[in-house]
Amino acid sequence: MSARCPQCGFKADLLTETQFHTCSQCGAGFRVYDGLGISEQYIRHDQNDAFAWEALLGVLDAEGCRHPEQPGDIKFGYHPFWFADLSDGNISFCPASSMPKGFPLPSMAPVGALEFTSKSLRFPQASLKPETLMTSESGIKRLRLLQIPLYLISYQVASEDYQATVSGSTWQTYTSSLPKETGIDVPLQRVKFLGVYMTSLFLSGLLAPNFAWRAVAFIIIVTIAWSLDRSGVKRG
Amino acid sequence: MADAFVKIVPLICGRCSQRMTAQREQVVYQCGTCGSSWELRAGLISARPVIHLSGKGALLLPFWNARFQMTCEVGNVVDLSGFLPLCGSVKQPGDKGTQPLMLNIPAFALPPHQAVKLARNMLVRFPVFGQSRAVDKPFEAVTLAESDIHTLAELIVLSAIVEKRRSNPNFLTSFSVQLYDSQLVTIPFDRDGNRYNQVDLNLEV
Amino acid sequence: MATIVFKCPLCGAPFEFTEGDHVSLCQFCGATSAIAGDTGIPRLLIPERIDLNDARAALRKLLANEGGSEFAASFNFKGGTLYFLPYWRIHGKAIGWQWSERETYSEEVDYDEKGARCTRQVKGPNERIFSLIAKPLDFASPAGDFTVFGRVRAGLAGSVLKCEVMDYPSAAARGVVVDPLKGVAQARQEALAMSLESAGAEGSIRRESRVKISSEWLSLLYYPVWSLQFARGDSMYPVVVDAVNGEVVKCHFPLEKERKCFLPLALISLILLGWTTMPVAGVAFTLLAAFIFKWQTGSLEISDIVKLLTGIPERGAGVKRG
Questions:
Q1: Among B1, B5, B105, B116, which would you mutate to test the C interface (most chain C Cβ atoms within 10 Å of its Cβ)?
Q2: Angle at alpha carbon of residue C297, lines to C296 and C302, rounded to 5°
């Protein structure tokens, strides 16, 4: 089998059937898919699930959406994408492996510093072929496999399931659908407070012998309730 | 990271090893000491021969001179007898009919529109110059690089073909110009305030 | 046009030249040198002028100015990274031609059977316009999808600020040097499309053009931006700060206004005061309360009444950029 080095174009006879090769001419490491030499690059990233979750909550908050009651299920991993420089000067970007259903995908490669992969690093393999995905009429000038760190988050709001993808390089969040706008969640504490307040007003109103007494009693109750409210009773 | 660098090349004359001076946008450099001309080719200072054409005038203006052929709807146009009818000219080329087509593109600093106008006028008047005997005379700074003359050449030839270019878009899309044997020449002009005059050609810039 | 600083090959002093120049003079030794840019694409960098603390301070200032100091204090700083974003800079001349065909109409005055005057539009011959295009081109285009960073004005800054030659190890030690993913061919197409757009051929039914870039000076310019993260509660908010001028380019901090707590309590007591006195007073005081509610909040919707009673904070536009 022979393949061309994606860095220097040197055509090398490959003696082994392994996927990883080193160019004898320029020393660049590259992978071979279907006889095609491809450079594989990745965006370095240290996993931080808490950050990804907070990034998603920030987006929900900014969009005025309801927050999930419980933390979502977060799966971190590198996902391979094909990135092609086409001969007409345009570029093409598409997933190189099938993603779990429902998760939105970045439409363009996330911003980051790309590093070449090496034998010692283990990344998922491409399971989708680039030829079937590139529908462009112009040919592929240079093909790369980009390994992109992504957090796939599934969460529930009002017992409905939602999915979001957070890019590990810039914490950019991709969502296909968002939970509806914040509903009115009345805190129980507040209901109790209002209940006690109204009952005391009602009782004192009935018990007061005349309008003047009633008004005085009401002013006292309102003042007490207001000072309690300001001191934070409603927040528990 | 496939890095590529800008190279800073000191301007030192290849003949007499003296420092040369140049203006910001200059692409051909003249040695103030020995008068030779140089340019940057593949990052190296290389000689650029300059031909001085004879005529009346004290100021030498540089032009890129090149033979050209034109391809369009009607086929290849290679000489004046084919080109003049396209320009709508009633002038008879006479014995000049088989003369190759010549372009003189201003290589000195001139707004693009004026450069096109001047070159167009020179194209339709098909001047014939003699070569001057004088060598290495100082001339105006060259700011147009040889690699950029082709784009301008198409525009100049088109500007001469008035009728066709306006009425027929197919003519435009099939139109192209090929340049041959480009060389740097200087043509003497007279300076009159902000204007340049060429008496022999009845030209003014 | 950017001023670029290299080293003079003869004396080693800083050697400055302007983008697009072919020749420049060393200010120190007076030697003239030529600039050969055709050996490759120069990578230039605008150094960051503000550090992480300045970037944080810029955001805090914005939050305090637009949302108040209490609002600004409710956000905690979580971290920040410097990014160098690559932009294609194309400098040269757009040279070519444009041909367009446009329909023309003229108004003709006519009289109908009853002798009433009327005007009608008559189609004239198509107008064909040929124009020569020859104009300077100064264009910057992001070499990737930087929407996550908002509108960074790198092109403008690249025209006025001093650039340095990209020293990759030094830049990579300070921040993330983003790799260009968009090719220069695309940037060139954009630059030419822009030059055609400004050449004007509005309303044309057919258009042909051929424009090329002449005297091209191409470079990849890296522009610094700070990407910061701020948190409130368990939500994180990304912020982008221009690392050259300290401008907050992108952020969105929703504002939650605390509801007034006296108003609902007072209105409830007013209504109950009426109803515990006599039904007529009840109706009158309820109407009065509704009037005060409308006057204070501008609405009489059930959801607003419930929100006011339950003290759910009101959402405002907050502080938003980009």
A1: B5
A2: 130
Asked if B152 is an interface residue toward chain C (Cβ–Cβ < 8 A), one would say yes
Q: State the angle between helix axes of C302-310 and C279-297 in degrees (0 to 180), rounded to the nearest 10.
A: 90
Do residue A42 and residue A63 come from a single domain?
yes
Residues of chain C with pLDDT under 50: 38-39
Position B3 confidence tier, pLDDT thresholds 50, 70, 90: very low
User: Is ipTM over 0.90?
Assistant: no
Residue A30 and residue A120 in one domain: yes
pLDDT of B1 reads 34
> Which C residues, 254 through 273, put their C-beta within 8 Å of a C-beta on chain A?
254, 261-262, 265-266, 268-269, 272-273
Q: Hey, are the CB atoms on A90 and C237 less than 8 Å from each other?
A: no
Domain residues of chain C, as ranges? 1-36, 42-96+133-253, 262-321
Residue whose C-alpha is closest to residue C86's, from C218, C182, C227, C188 = C182
Q: If pLDDT is split at 50, 70 and 90, which confidence band does A25 have?
A: low
The shortest CB-CB distance from A171 to any of C172, C238, C272 is to C238
State the smallest CA–CA distance between residue C254 and chain A in angstroms: 6
Task: For residues A110-130, give the mean pLDDT.
Answer: 80
Backbone torsions φ then ψ of C35, nearest 5 degrees: -110, 115
CB A63 within 8 A of CB A168: no
pLDDT of residue C2: 62
A99 and A13 belong to one structural domain = yes
> Which chain C residues are within 8 Å of B1, Cβ to Cβ?
168
